[in-house]
Specification:
ABC transporter transmembrane region fold, ABC1_TM_sf, 3 domains, 20 helices, alpha/beta, ATP binding, ATP-binding, about 575 residues, binds adenosine-5'-diphosphate, four-stranded antiparallel beta sheet, binds magnesium ion, 10 strands
């Protein structure tokens, strides 16, 4: 019930159109109920009376009504679908927006393919359900009750005989519909798996080629594809049983009408005209039954999609603004990480960070060093609140970051990571992403600062060069420089550099290091580096491993004290010193 209420709420913005649609649907039902009466009059009265005038008038009237019906039909078909299409658009918009409010832990545990499937496939059938649903139900009810009342007036015994069978058809239809509903739900789940596999496999195409694992990928896909095939086959089997039986029932109903109706004509209880009316009504009546069963099918398709849609819409993001959050602006840039502990949701016993304390004064650079898996990236993600700390607090300029609006917090932080993500599109689009209001001059300035302007202008299409899917047409260094240009354009007071150059070769690293130093000027910086040469000049270096902070001090100090850092440094420069 709740689901239907939620579904209905999507009608609200389109109420006027929907009412027009329903009005015309009502018109169609009304006209359809009138036609058999007119035909019956012709047979029962005008033909025996040889009343040519009445016959002609009725024929002309019917002609006009048919045209009106055609107009109504046009409105119902076209504008009805328009209502559906608009509702589907609204739902897709809401779901897309909602997905963007979800926090990172949601995306850690969901599959992109599944989410895509919900956005695309699940909502695809809403258009049909949205207008056929109410319209068909409405027309069918009126047609069935209307015919029943009119036929009862002509000959109640015959009517009761015919309508005796109707409940059985309905019970059968409802029973089978329910079964179809579960079957269609399974189909939806399977297609989501297939989508997700395609997405995963194609985005990893380079890896599968490198390992020559195309056949393995194919086999993996076969399995998903086969379960999808089987689930659809199964759904169609139920559908086939459903339709063949319903048509059989409907034909039997016509047979009953003709046989018993004929007998009633023998008995002179009804005339030929009445029998014609009965047959016409029953044939009209088949239409609503078909519509009802169609509706049952659309309902299953649409509603199982809508159900999955609302399941996601119900999920509340765990990381959200407090009521009346402060806007973080004019930041000085003091960051203090106080007694911070953190564990990922799926592994709560295993704390990634335990009582970490780090203080970064405004404008200073603090470097984190430590073994892989020590929680450095995790710590970087806590500052812009991709995840929330499970203990302790993080403050900017002395205030807990949870008190600021998330948008204003993230606006003050620039993040450069090892794995650069570029959007499929042009160079311009990717740089401008850092500040959507930036002018061309500002964009070029940022590119120059990131030492990529010259490369870009050497391309035939310059800033409008298409960089391929996720930037495949660029080298690792070029990608990283674009991502740095993006941050230059954003111009945030706080900067987080998470192994920004680790994936690059030494020569490229040196060039990019220059840009990064330029970028760091005048900002508060938390830098994580794999190669210690790049952090020598940091104001403070912190050595962290999974049992917490081990050492802390300047490069010279740490080197002198001869601890973990000194060992690490020496091992990296073996042969150089
Ligand atoms: P580092 O950057 O120091 O190499 P990370 O912060 O990436 O370390 O990872 C720290 C630990 O947290 C690792 O044990 C890793 O398995 C785990 N981890 C990282 N990201 C996630 C995630 N999204 N969900 C669950 N566990 C994660
Ligand atoms: Mg890391």
């Amino acid at each position: 019930m709740n689901l239907i209420r939620k579904f209905s709420s999507y009608y609200k913005p389109h109420m006027k159109l929907f009412m027009l649609d329903m009005f015309c649907a009502l018109g169609i039902a009304g006209l359809d109920l009138v036609f058999p009466i007119l035909s019956r009059n012709i047979l029962n009265i005008y033909i025996p009376d040889k009343n040519l005038h009445a016959l002609a008038v009725t024929a002309v009237a019917m002609l006009v009504l048919y045209v009106v019906r055609a107009l109504f039909n046009y409105v119902v078909f076209y504008w009805g679908h328009v209502v559906g299409v608009r509702m589907e658009y609204d739902m897709r918009r809401d779901l897309f927006g909602h997905l963007h409010t979800m926090d990172m832990s949601f995306f850690d545990s969901s599959r992109t393919g599944k989410l895509m499937s919900r956005l695309v496939n699940d909502l695809n059938l809403i258009t049909e359900l949205a207008h056929h649903g109410p319209e068909d139900l409405f027309i069918s009810m009126i047609m069935i009750f209307g015919s029943f009342i009119i036929l009862m007036n002509i000959e109640w015994r015959l009517t009761l005989i015919i309508f005796f069978f109707v409940p059985f058809i309905f019970i059968f239809a409802v029973w089978k519909s329910l079964r179809m509903r579960t079957k269609f739900r399974t189909v939806k789940e399977k297609i989501a798996v297939v989508n997700s596999q395609i997405e995963n496999s194609l985005s990893g195409i380079r890896v599968s080629k490198a390992f020559a694992n195309e056949e393995f990928e194919e086999e993996k896909f076969q399995h998903g594809n086969m379960t999808f095939r089987l689930s659809r086959t199964d759904a169609f089997k139920t559908m086939a049983e459903f339709y063949s039986t319903i048509y059989l029932f409907m034909n039997l109903l016509t047979l009953v009408t003709i046989a018993f109706g004929g007998y009633f004509v023998f008995l002179d209880r009804i005339s030929y005209g009445d029998l014609l009316a009965f047959i016409l009504y029953i044939s009209f009546f088949l239409e609503p039954l078909k519509k009802l069963t169609n509706f049952a099918e659309q309902y299953q398709n649409g509603m199982s999609g809508f159900e999955r849609f609302s399941e996601i819409m119900k999920i509340e993001p765990k990381i959200k603004n407090i009521e009346n959050p402060k806007i973080l602006s004019d930041v000085k840039g003091d960051i203090s990480i106080e007694n911070v502990s953190f564990s990922y949701e799926d592994n709560e016993e295993n704390k990634v960070l335990k009582d970490v304390n780090i203080k970064i004064d405004a404008g200073k650079t603090v470097a984190l060093v430590g073994p892989s898996g020590g929680g450095k990236t995790t710590l970087c993600h806590l500052i812009p609140r991709f995840y929330d700390v499970t203990g302790g607090e993080i403050k900017i300029d002395g205030e807990n970051i949870k008190g600021f609006s998330i948008k204003s917090l993230r606006n003050q932080i620039g993040l450069v990571q090892q794995n650069v993500f570029l959007f499929t599109g042009t160079i311009r689009e990717n740089i401008i992403y850092g500040n959507l209001d930036a002018t061309d001059d500002e964009m070029i300035e940022a590119a120059k600062n990131a030492s990529i302007h010259e490369f870009i202008t050497s391309l035939p299409e310059g800033y409008d060069t298409f960089i391929g899917e996720r930037g495949v047409k660029l080298s690792g260094g070029q990608k990283q420089r674009l991502s740095i240009a993006r941050v230059f354009l954003k111009n945030p007071p706080i900067l987080i550099l998470d192994e920004a150059t680790s994936a690059l070769d030494n020569a490229t690293e040196i060039v990019i290091q220059e840009s990064l130093e330029r970028l760091s000027k005048g900002r508060t910086v938390l830098v994580i580096a794999h190669r210690l040469s790049t952090i020598k000049n940091a104001d403070e270096i912190i050595v962290i491993n999974d049992s917490g902070i081990q050492e802390q001090g300047t490069h010279d100090l740490l080197l002198k004290s001869g601890g973990i850092y000194a060992d690490l440094y020496k091992s990296q420069f073996k042969g150089f010193i």
